[in-house]
Design goal:
The chain is built from 4 helices and 14 strands. It has 339 residues and is an alpha+beta fold. The two termini are 36 Å apart.
Length: 339
């Protein structure tokens, strides 16, 4: 499937890049001229006026070309969506053939023919999608979004001082609440290296004898003489560990699962290809967010993006993720899954 790029004038990108390079060159000359203005002020004034006029002329050309480039990008956005939907549709058709084969509608020979045709269609559409995606990234590099606006720093409220109670009337201090633990959590903090399954809800649990990498261990005793009685169950859980199995981000495509992204210790999400997860839309910053594995699980952090990162519909700066949390940025939604 060859993408229809007939309405996209790629030569405008080179023109825009050349004009912006001219702007930078002229400004550099103006800065150098400023070094000598004290020696020959009259000549300096004439040169600066000339440079200012030239910069104004180039800026007018840049504005006109940039306007046309933005129009091409809008057309390219629509083509990008069509190509991506085409890949998804081809994959759905292959899954439908597999389902019909399982219930006995197709013979093995019929299914193999359909499978071969579907895989060929998927390969062609993926190639076309990658072509459009690469060109679109080039446009987005030349048309960056607005710079991020720093969020206001919240000012904590200072509570009014309360009179200290008398020792005789002081009530008994309640015990500190124990943080709730997830039911069925295994007793060791670990990352289980398992393969990501396509159907996450039906994925089997991590076997207890699977090789794991321990992140935290309970404190060891200094020796036989230093041994103490075992702490109560609540205290023991404070030193116990929690098994954290492989985690995924699954793209939500209009209610249907899309691509699966396996999370590591640090996973970055952004518009440019140097991220582990690339979301090539203008509303997403170059480095938009990151997901970090900590001792208590995975945490998503917004990296100062102007359009924000949302978890379950609320804008966040930092949020500890739970199974089935929905992360949204720039119109793209991911579902966080823990196996």
């Amino acid at each position: 499937m060859t993408p229809d790029l007939g309405n996209i004038d790629v030569s405008l990108l080179d023109t825009l890049a050349r004009l912006e390079a001219d702007q930078r060159s002229i400004r550099a000359l103006a800065e150098k001229a400023a070094w000598h203005r004290d020696k020959v002020f009259e000549v300096y004034s004439r040169i600066v006026r000339d440079y200012a006029a030239r910069v104004t002329g180039v800026e007018e050309q840049v504005s006109a070309v940039r306007l046309r480039v933005r129009e091409d990008l809008r057309r390219l956005d629509a083509l990008y969506e069509r190509c991506r939907d085409g890949v998804d549709q081809a994959r759905v058709e292959l899954q439908e053939s597999e389902f019909r084969r399982e219930i006995g509608e197709f013979t093995r020979e019929e299914f193999l023919k359909r499978q071969e045709a579907a895989e060929r269609t998927i390969a062609e559409r993926e190639q076309a999608f990658e072509t459009v995606k690469t060109l679109r990234l080039r446009y987005l590099e030349l048309l960056p979004g607005e710079p991020p606006v720093p969020a206001p720093v919240p000012v904590p409220s200072v509570p009014a001082p309360q009179p200290a109670p008398s020792p005789a009337a002081a009530p008994e201090e309640p015990a500190a609440p124990v943080p709730p633990t997830r039911r069925g959590s295994p007793p060791a903090i670990a990352i289980a290296e398992t393969e990501a399954a396509a159907a996450i809800p039906d994925a089997p649990p991590v076997p207890s004898d699977e090789a794991v990498t321990s992140l935290f261990t309970p404190p060891s005793a200094a020796g036989p003489q230093a041994q103490k009685p075992a702490p109560p169950a609540d205290d023991a859980e404070a030193f116990a560990t929690v098994a954290i199995s492989s985690a995924l981000l699954i793209e939500d495509r209009a209610g249907q699962p899309g691509a699966h992204h396996r999370l590591g210790v640090l996973t970055t999400i952004g518009r440019t290809p140097d991220n582990q997860i690339v979301v090539p839309v203008r509303e997403v910053s170059r480095r938009h967010a990151e997901i970090v594995l900590t001792g208590t699980g995975y945490v998503v952090k917004d990296l100062g993006s102007p359009n924000g990162t949302f978890v379950n519909g609320e804008r966040i700066t930092e949020h500890r993720l739970q199974d089935e949390d929905r992360i949204a940025m720039g119109g793209q939604v991911f579902v966080f899954k823990v196996r």
